[in-house]
Write a structure and sequence with these properties.
CATH architecture of the largest domain: 3-Layer(aba) Sandwich
Distance between the termini: 36 Å
Largest sheet: 5 strands, parallel
Structural class: alpha/beta
CATH superfamily of the largest domain: Response regulator
CATH class of the largest domain: Alpha Beta
Helix content: 40-55%
Number of domains: 2
Amino acid sequence: MSGPVRVVIADDQALVRTGFRMILAADGIEVVAEAADGEEAVAAVRRARPDVVLMDVRMPRTDGLEATRQIVTGGAETRVLILTTYDLDHYVYAALTAGASGFLLKDVTPEHLVAAVRLVRSGDALLAPTITRRLIERFAPREEEQSAPHRDLAELTPRELEVLSLLATGLSNAELADRLTLSPTTVKTHVARILSKLGLRDRVQAVVLAYETGLVSPRGAR
């Protein structure tokens, strides 16, 4: 992608918005709008069509979870990065299920914030392996609550199912390549095909799907 990264910051605290705006602007990232609640965030996305939204979870009127759902289901190409004070906020898992591309803690370093925005804008997803495991362990459906397997899982090849199962534990492409003795390019191709066949936006949605369908259990992710 060419041109500057365009971002909307949605947080009910003006001081937080100002701090993030200064950090992003210092690295050449353009903040095209700010929002104090989810309703304003959805409107800002429709109006400004940003690349990324930094979305707080707990906001008045429409919260970050519902705003994320509206943005994703509305067909916007905008990626949503959830901001939270707590790394195990139960809203985070629901937001990922709604289509968010990852999440950050509000005490993130400036360097990490900038890198995360650029990573998500490039089409990747931000979900650290340790955070993946902790989220899944705490909030994924238990085995007795698992839904029926996704109807399109049958379209995956045995190798693609293997890749999806390992991806669900939070492994990066490089780690997948090492585990499966494949080249990083081949792994990237497998991941792209999995996302395409399952109609998913990114690896975060693939992780959520793997657990919700019972392909992988939370116990197996430890």
